[in-house]
Design goal:
Length: 65
């Protein structure tokens, strides 16, 4: 099962956003993206990175807010 979320970080006095996808079985991040706005595109970039990196088997459950 993969879990995804976006969080905000204050860096250099400005707000930035980190989208991450975590593999709960291995307890490791498998995809991430960093940007200046919390958009659906940012979340999609993190998911695409995870899919390219891991190439999961059919039936994977992906949960996000």
């Amino acid at each position: 099962m993969w879990l995804a979320d976006i969080t905000c970080l204050r860096i250099g006095g400005k707000w930035s956003y980190l989208a991450a996808v975590i593999d709960l079985a291995r307890r490791k991040p498998v995809g991430w993206a960093f940007g200046s706005r919390p958009t659906a595109g940012l979340a999609c970039k993190a998911l695409l990175m995870a899919l390219e990196k891991v190439k999961p088997l059919k039936g994977l459950i992906h949960h996000s807010d």
